[in-house]
Each structure stands twice: as structure tokens, then as C-alpha cells.
Amino acid sequence: MSEQMSRIDWPAGYDRTDPEDREPYDGDLSPTRKESFKSIVDELERWGATSIDIETASDHYVDRPNIPHQHDKPDDVGVVVRFRHEDEAADEPLAYACDHWETQRENARAIALYVRRMRLAEKCQIATGQSTAATARLPGGDEDDDVIVAGTSEPELDVERAAELLGVAPDAPDRVVETAFQEAIKDGHPDQGGDASMSRLKEAREVLTDAG
């Protein structure tokens, strides 16, 4: 293990990816590295997380401890996020970790997208053997893959699908999304010959307002 790799306190029991097996992330990489790390914190805070601590092999800014230095390019591109969640016991910190992709930005982006999906899935109130937050391992996957929520037969909406459903731009302001939602309710009502379910329209509105 290199000196840089040893700087990360990788969670016990979490496998590491061999550097030769890392892959380029083929999802949306429009956010910068700084934005990717910031989005992890934003998504976790929306989910009710506290004591958020992001660790990498890079030096982090003193005034922004969860953001690695912009020009630091360590050999170990892994990202570990530790936090506590309002639904978990106070003495049980949780962790997500990812080093499957080739760069820090890609791994941070993957974690942020994963947390967002978990947060939205939890709102569906599906009964499971443990809380959604207690899934301690970040699985491999691509943000463009369809995620099937338990109890449904439809893939989870992403921003592009939600925008298409409501007929707005992906970056439409909240007021435009709300207007489109109200119109879609009328158009989608069975009496009007529509076929979009109320729950699907509400999900689309939530996805777009969360993304804004």
C-alpha cells in the first residue's frame, strides 16, 4: 500500500478496488470536483445526516474540510464519507465508500447520486429489514441504470425523465415546475384521457425541485 493510500482510513470490511480494475465513469460528469464533493454534503443534509466527514488521500481546505484541494491528484482516488443519521442510534456512525472509478470526482459524484437515490427511495415508505440509511456499502453501478423501487414496476425518475414527463426543461425554476405539475394533473386525470399517475407526477415535481 502506498503512503497516499494509507492516508485514507478505509472502513473495516469494505473491499478496495485494485487500481488496474478501475473504470472511467460513463455517467453525467458535468459537475466539477468541488461541486461533486459539495453535493455529497448537500444530499446527506437533506436526508437528515449530521457529523458529515469526507476523507480522501488529498489535503483538504482548512475552511472547507470536506473539499479536497483542487489541484491535488493523489494515486489513491478513493472517497470515504462518514456521518450520523437521525434514524440511527447516536453511537452508530455510518459510512459510504467508493474507489471503483478512475478519479476522485467520479467517486464523489457516484456517492452523491447514490445518497440522493436512497433519500428519495426512503420517502416511498417501503418497509425493509433495516433503515435505508443503514446500507453501509456503496454498490457499483451507473447513474443511467434504471433503479426499480420496491413495490413498483417503474424505474425511478431522474431529472431528464422527470422534465420530459412534465414538459419542462431539466433546469426549469421551481415556479415553472409547479405550474407544469398543476397542468399535468388536469391533463393526466382519467376523465381527460390521461395516463400519468398522480404519484408519478408528484415524483417528477420532487425530482426537479430537489435538483434546482
UniProtKB/TrEMBL annotation:
<feature type="compositionally biased region" description="Basic and acidic residues">
    <location>
        <begin position="15"/>
        <end position="34"/>
    </location>
</feature>
<dbReference type="InterPro" id="IPR036869">
    <property type="entry name" value="J_dom_sf"/>
</dbReference>
<dbReference type="InterPro" id="IPR001623">
    <property type="entry name" value="DnaJ_domain"/>
</dbReference>
<protein>
    <submittedName>
        <fullName>J domain-containing protein</fullName>
    </submittedName>
</protein>
<feature type="region of interest" description="Disordered">
    <location>
        <begin position="1"/>
        <end position="34"/>
    </location>
</feature>
<feature type="domain" description="J">
    <location>
        <begin position="161"/>
        <end position="212"/>
    </location>
</feature>
